[in-house]
Amino acid sequence: MPKRILSIALAAIALGLVACNSNTNINALYGTPQPTSTATLTPDPSATAAIITVTLNGSPMPNQPVTLSNDLNGTIGTTIKTQNTDSSGTTTFNGLTGAANYCFSSVYTPTTVGATQQTPSYCGPYWGHGTVVLQFTQ
User: Fold this and answer.
1) How many other C-beta atoms are found inside a 10 Å radius of the C-beta of residue 79?
2) pLDDT tens digit at each of 138 positions of the chain
3) Which residue of 72, 86, 99, 134 pairs with 77 in a disulfide if CB–CB is 3.0 to 4.6 A?
4) Hey, which residues does 56 pair with through a beta bridge?
5) Single pTM value for the model
6) Rounded-to-integer distance, Cα 108 and Cα 85, Å
């Protein structure tokens, strides 16, 4: 009897090894993976303020002028207002129309010899979803 049990156990192990090494299609076992959905960002119609942070090499830039302008098809249009960042490199533009397109920009000329002026900007309707970051490098 013990030989019979040992034979059955060895046969089961052999079948298991064959099954593991048979190049089984994983999709046949578990099904084809479905693509994950991606979130679609939509403008926030209830937003009335835009928070803008300006950084230089990742550090906040205090007293940096930031300009709020009309958005002309993704480019900076007529200036509406300019205000400086606070000590944390942030400024808030209030009284905006939710989901409207605006441009936010700032200008900086690095002190490195031969460096050119930088004007990072954001134009569009998604400013109400959090902080818009304008980044400079030197």
Assistant:
1) 12
2) 565 665 665 555 655 555 555 555 555 556 666 666 676 889 999 999 999 999 999 999 999 999 999 999 999 999 999 999 999 999 999 999 999 999 999 999 988 888 899 999 999 999 999 899 999 998
3) 72
4) 59, 136
5) 0.70
6) 13
CATH of the domain spanning 50-136: 2.60.40.1120
Structure-token pair, residue 8: 């059955």
Encoded amino acid at 11, one letter: A
Helix/strand/coil (H/E/C) assignment for every residue in the chain: CHHHHHHHHHHHHHHHHHHHCCCCCHHHHHCCCCCCCCCCCCCCCCCCCEEEEEEECCEECCCCEEEEEEEECCEEEEEEEEEECCCCCEEEECCCCCCCCEEEECCECCCCCCCCCECCEEEECCHHHCEEEEEECC
User: CB 55: neighbour CB atoms within 10 A?
Assistant: 18
